[in-house]
Amino acid sequence: MILPIIGYGDPVLRKVGEEVPSDYPNLKQVVADMYDTMYNAYGVGLAAPQVGLSLRLFVIDTSPFADDEDLDAEEQEQLKNFKMTFINPKMLKEEGEEWGFNEGCLSIPEVREDVYRNEKITIEFFDDDFNKRTEEYDGLIARVIQHEYDHIEGILFTDKISSLKKQLIKKKLQNIMDGKTRPDYKMKFVAKKGR
């Protein structure tokens, strides 16, 4: 089922997500709905707070990045085949050079900015069968994970840009909060909640 994506300004996007118990009701369905919602919006990652659930859970599928002709064949292959559910993740390490990439967010439509993140991460998490895993990732996969991990910590990519850039996008962010932005996917805007 395709869920509405929560727009910028909603308090749920600022909460630190709660641990997901292994007996969480309908967890498989929640995960399936999150993938459906992400694909419907042409995203590469989606965190539970973005569908109104304050949980430590996110899903990723980097296959849309595999078409980037600037990447070598090995990187394209990695991106094409990376699809993963992260339940109760814990970032163990972020290391390596920081590098910039133009990021966007389904909760902040029509806003893209360069964000600097570490190139390599080590993360511990449970997969969708609740198997505990510890993995290392680098490059674009690490970046998408870091972006989604920020969501479950109540952090948005716009928090990581300069104050000048924040001033420049202020009007766009206000338009999202006012429900004046019209992405081609279902959204729930903070201003329209009470109506």
Automatic annotation (TrEMBL):
- Cofactor binding note: Binds 1 Fe(2+) ion.
Q: Which cofactor does it need?
A: Fe(2+)
Q: Where does Fe cation bind?
A: 105, 147, 151
Uppermost EC category: hydrolase
Recorded catalytic reaction(s): these are: N-terminal N-formyl-L-methionyl-[peptide] + H2O = N-terminal L-methionyl-[peptide] + formate
Q: Where is the active site?
A: 148
Q: What does this protein do?
A: Removes the formyl group from the N-terminal Met of newly synthesized proteins. Requires at least a dipeptide for an efficient rate of reaction. N-terminal L-methionine is a prerequisite for activity but the enzyme has broad specificity at other positions.
Put simply, this protein is called Peptide deformylase
User: Whose protein is this, by species?
Assistant: Flavobacterium endophyticum
